[in-house]
Amino acid sequence: MARVRIGDVAREAGVSLGTVSNALNHPEKVRPETRRIIDEAIERLGYLPNQSARMLAGGHSNVLGLVLPRLNHGSSLQIANGALTEARRHGYNLIMANANDDKALSARSARYLMGMQVDGILVQPVPSLEWEPAATHTVPVVYLDVRSGSPGSYVSADNMGQGALIARHLVTHGTEHIAVIGRTSSQHMKLRLAGIQDVLSAHPDIELEVLDAGEWNVSGDGYSLGVSLMQRAPGERPDAIIGLTDVLAAGAIGGALSTGARVPDDLLVAGCDGNPLAWSTPVALTTCSPAGYEIGRKGIQLLLERIAASDAQPRETQERREEVVRPFLLPRASTGAVPTEGLTTVENRARSIPEFNMGAYL
Amino acid sequence: MARVRIGDVAREAGVSLGTVSNALNHPEKVRPETRRIIDEAIERLGYLPNQSARMLAGGHSNVLGLVLPRLNHGSSLQIANGALTEARRHGYNLIMANANDDKALSARSARYLMGMQVDGILVQPVPSLEWEPAATHTVPVVYLDVRSGSPGSYVSADNMGQGALIARHLVTHGTEHIAVIGRTSSQHMKLRLAGIQDVLSAHPDIELEVLDAGEWNVSGDGYSLGVSLMQRAPGERPDAIIGLTDVLAAGAIGGALSTGARVPDDLLVAGCDGNPLAWSTPVALTTCSPAGYEIGRKGIQLLLERIAASDAQPRETQERREEVVRPFLLPRASTGAVPTEGLTTVENRARSIPEFNMGAYL
DNA sequence: CTTGTGAATTAAAACGCTTTAACCATATGC
DNA sequence: GCATATGGTTAAAGCGTTTTAATTCACAAG
Questions:
Q1: Which of A4, A13, B25, B124 is the most exposed place for a label (fewest CB within 10 A)?
Q2: In Å, how far is A231's CA from the nearest CA of chain B?
């Protein structure tokens, strides 16, 4: 089946090849009448433009690349969704590459995308301590969800801010003893904890203890910790638990409930970074706005700005930009926020988060 | 910054352009000595091949496309990982497009990828009743995770088999009253249920009831159902719950425990399609092997076969192939399977599922 | 000293499109 | 009416590769 080329369309429509190309790329340059004839010819022949040829000839692709470290890393999913939505809004296609937690593969993917003539690249780096030597980029690159120190422009969540937000929220609820649970070896978590500590340093009367939750951050660990914390002697028992991760917090709620403790009456529980996976807790979980979606959105915006700017001036002279996504609190039942009556819990939760659809799980 | 072209490399290495191309694509055709010189020149100049030009000239790309309906649809994540891994194993790159549950976008993405000269496409269709009119494909296409009736070759899970497997497992444990919970409006779920009913039709003495879990399949719904089922009068109470989804089953465990029921002593609980997200239940959940990863793997294999075959004979004459991924049981504590002693629960679970790493959640 | 052979290299022809500049009507201004 | 715009259209020149056919070269055989 010989593939239909632009020349075939031109012949079918009785115009020249260039006119067809114009109809496709600069519709305003061709008379509506002619355009109609061409459209019909395209339809009749089932013409499919060869993107490779377009990119080669045009020097640009209208495609943006997104390199993720792994599909199931915390925010990657939400980043992907935010980026996709925003890219489409601007008429760009988005193609994704998954580095499978392999640093070399991540770099190779980015290089490959550049070779593919994408107009710009978003990279969520593989978690690691050192940055790879800043490769020479032939297209604008923006890094996502990184701690500061990236070699280029980046968009990042305000992890410290998240911690502080939650801590302040609990403080206003009169807590006297907070237990923080989470894998504190991770950078993100360290920052969240720092935010908490920062706020509590102004409240020396409030007791703060930190429990490491093991390597996996699965809710089973949260569950165990919830149980053991609630089984302590009354005086030793915390009256609030912060999960550095929503999944841990969700587990902790389950664990606490199983000991007969009541949430939020006996125990306040809050999470971080509003993971839609954790919505389905017995008691709706107070948390912070999930940053992923917004990081993806802002990443695309920043990238597009840089692409536009590159056309004007050489990329080298552009300043490095840093964007931080500000968190906001999502107070829910687990810290005694008043549930909206007349709504199911799911509906209730849905109202709190714009990108609710992120959470529907099969 | 003018981009380095293959001609620049040739000049730097003191050979002709064609030789550089050969060194890149048919290394065996160029003397090792020359190859070394060329490699050095490439290194020195930081040459990055223009993939668009390669695809255009070569007519193929060494890239496979994957179109997903949505990143967070049940098995999509695992499909993506399975496909990626298998594609890399065969030296292919994989680029993904996300259709965001939009049928038109899904079709457009597939067309776009074809225009991009990918060598083949894997499509997990947007859930919907009718198939889009079979578009003319310029490259081999394989559909994934579909109910039968697809217009082309496909790889699918054996949802009925999963249901049957779980049902048989419970039957051998002497259950007398099974409650099935899940959103039975979904095709996948219908099939799983059918498998269960099929097995139980041979056991008229076992009571079977089906409870619809609402639209969202979140574990909160499982929790509520778990509570209400266990709060029934002793005679009315089921002694086993099957969640058509692992997440529901996980919720049900929590709900049941909260009423004081013991799992698995008073109640057996099992899920379906081993969702790693549900690993973190208080009691390890019995379930079936997750099909997603395997579907992705087999999909790539089938696709590669078809690509190889297309080179030999025209695609039209090829037969339509159907592959089904067979499920196997993952018996764990929630149905009284003996836990492996000396291992943490996480380790224990890890051993049961090859693609364990799928489940590590930040 | 031819001639033949095979390996290594090169020159040149696609690949399918975008874009530039030239072209041609037809409408506009004086 | 003649020059001047103006909107549409076209011919032709790339874009950076791969690939095919031609060329060169070294060496062995006759």
A1: B25
A2: 16
